[in-house]
Design brief:
Layout (H helix, E strand, L loop, with lengths): L4 E6 L6 H20 L6 E7 L4 E3 L4 E3 L3 E2 L8 E4 L6 H7 L3 H10 L3 E4 L3 H6 L8 E2 L6 H7 L4 E2 L5 E4 L2 E4 L5 H12 L2 H11 L23 H12 L7 H8 L3 H12 L3 H19 L4 H7 L5 H12 L3 H8 L1 H5 L1
Parallel strand pairs: 1-2, 1-6, 2-5, 6-7, 7-11, 8-9
Antiparallel strand pairs: 3-4, 10-11
Helix pairs in contact: 1-6, 6-7
Length: about 325
């Protein structure tokens, strides 16, 4: 029988209630299951704060933590929930958690961030040089704030050196199931997945990503290149063509484009084409070949390969999952 683990779910100021209550419910579910068969609890779950009363969801809810960080010397797992609002401000108002998180990790505890809780975890410096996931909508902001961290936008879960992270929104449930499986076993994780009706073993958030490009930068020639690509996605666009149009050198354009958008020119073109294809599959009756030609591909194999690499699903799988009329019927 595994030893009892102390689970500390942080209660940051401005946290999202679901990210606090969800982990507590899942770990408590394991305890309830074992109580039902006459066995002791496997987890001691506590809500941990830096003040006795904490406002969540922009003041909509108030939580009274079980214990404060100053009174908790050691734990086994720290859960860092998602925080709301402007990430720089949200991290700043929760800065008092940072030395405690570092101290716990150095003392042997594991750390897990949920969704944009990755911003608070990354502020500790513990993620520098390591992989991390977060919500795809915040990827550009995360890269700007934490260039030393290797952001993996497509992943649902990362696991490195006792530090875990999850992708966006409710994908945190998959990380908690992953931890339950690691601590207790596969059978228990499956039981929890069935009770809470969670799609277990989902490992990518790519099917949910909506590519909007990264235009929050000051490089005007790169913005013009992005706009040209987006307005002419059906055409075969080359780097040389863009460089000539903008009167900049090819290597200079490629360097600036990557710096500004976190994509190479070729990657950006592919993502724009695939995003248009996704919208076609969601809303039209056009078959795969028709959509392929519409977005400027002529090689069926290449289109399918790029589409699956960027979305995690084949074109047919994507259509079956998201075609609106099929969903309604």
């Amino acid at each position: 029988m595994p030893a009892t683990k102390h689970i500390s779910v942080l209660v940051p100021r401005g946290a999202l209630l679901g990210n606090v209550e969800g982990p507590r419910q899942l770990f408590s579910c394991v305890n309830d299951y074992f109580a039902g068969i006459g066995r002791p609890a496997l987890f001691k779950v506590q809500l941990v704060g830096i003040s006795k009363e904490t406002k969540l969801n922009n003041g909509l809810y108030t939580i009274n933590p079980d214990i404060l960080t100053k009174d908790l010397a050691r734990t086994d797992l720290v859960i860092v929930p998602a925080i709301d609002g402007d990430m720089t401000a949200a991290v700043e108002q929760n800065r008092d958690f940072i030395p405690w998180i570092i101290e716990q990790y150095q003392g042997g505890a594991e750390i897990a961030s949920l969704c944009v809780g990755a911003f608070l975890l990354a502020s500790t410096g513990l993620l520098n040089g390591r992989k991390c996931a977060t919500h795809w909508m915040f990827a550009n902001d995360f890269r700007k704030m934490f260039p030393e961290v290797e952001l993996v936008v497509d992943k649902i879960i990362t696991d490195e050196y006792g530090i875990y992270s999850s992708g966006g929104a409710f994908s945190y449930l998959n990380l908690i199931l992953y931890l339950i499986e690691k601590y207790v076993g596969r059978d228990m994780a499956v039981v929890c997945a069935k009770i809470f009706q969670i799609d277990i073993d989902r490992n990518s958030q790519s099917p949910f990503t909506i590519f909007k490009g990264q235009k929050d930068h000051e490089d005007e020639p790169v913005k013009k290149a992005q706009e040209f690509i987006e307005n002419n996605f059906q055409e075969r666009i080359t780097v040389d063509q863009l460089a000539s149009m903008l009167a900049v050198g090819r290597r200079n354009l490629e360097r600036r484009f990557k710096k500004a958008t976190s994509n190479t020119v070729a990657e950006y073109i592919q993502r724009v084409k695939v995003e248009v294809a996704k919208m076609k599959f969601e809303s039209s009756r056009e078959n795969v070949n028709e959509v392929m030609y519409h977005v400027g591909y002529s090689d069926n194999k290449a289109f399918r390969s790029i589409f699956k690499r960027l979305t995690g699903l084949s074109p047919v799988e994507y259509r079956n999952k998201y075609y609106r009329e099929a969903l309604v019927s």
